[in-house]
Amino acid sequence: MAGSQWKKILAAGLCGLMAAGVLAGCGGGSGSGSSSSGGKMKVGIVQIVQHPALDESNKGFVDALNEAGLKDKVEIDEQNAQGDQSNLKAIANRYVSGNYKLIGAISTPAAQAMANATDKIPIICTAISDFENAKLMKSEKAPDSNVTGTNDRGPVDKQVKLIKEIQPNVKKIGIIYNSSEINSVVQAKHLKENCQPLGIDVVELTVNSVNDVQQVAEGFLGGKVDAIYVPTDNIIASSIPTLMAVANREKIPVYGAEVGHVKNGVLASESISFYDIGHRAGQMAAEILKGNKTVKDFPVEGADKTKLYINKSEMETLGIQIPKEVLDRAEMI
Q: In terms of domain of life, where is this protein from (predicted)?
């Protein structure tokens, strides 16, 4: 009798183990990486470095996901590469091996690293000047892979017009940027294209790291330029105070491609909103996460409006007289 009872107990134990195994197998299938342990979809958001413009794009992206009703349905893993390409590669590998549902890439280097790591996971990008030149797609009008998003192309024509309004006699405009950033190279090209018909020469200086900015920027001194233009370059954006310290020695007006530059000290900018382009990219991501659309349903979009910003403190430092019609349409910072 005792032996029979032990057999029954052992049989019950084996059945329990088998049931547990079945349940574990089912659990593994539903949580294979695209979802967190709480059943949420895993979304990675990576930016190359921390500075105001990219931070605003990031905020806009996350806000859009939340507004779309996904706050409790996604687990967001935000990463900052601190300007290091090896960090970008490690982050990309982590997202891919974790089978993330979608990746948000903020800046050209971040987008390129993610695209090199996967052609399967949807990658929604923002703060990129030119998707085609960055080799992320053949045509921004018709995405042909797992990548799309929003560009940050500012109105270079309006920037040049603004410089002419403030400095009617401008003859030479300097531009400083990292030549390894394709978006910066594109912006330098657009600046030259817009200056040439006006008889304005463009003086180009390039840097490789933040440590180069002060020494290289000193190449603008000695009357070599009448004004300096700063593109949406990640290295320069992180070094605005350094650049301004050099430019202010000879009271050279510095103009930025976006409002973050003005907040950090440059004189003026006809700026797009990085929050807005990040928000639009987040809306695209939300539609894809919901299963309503795919990457190829979204052509690359740009900002649909700009706003003029002027730094009051820098205007006083330069002792420059800005025309009333310019001041009337500007927001002072």
A: Bacteria
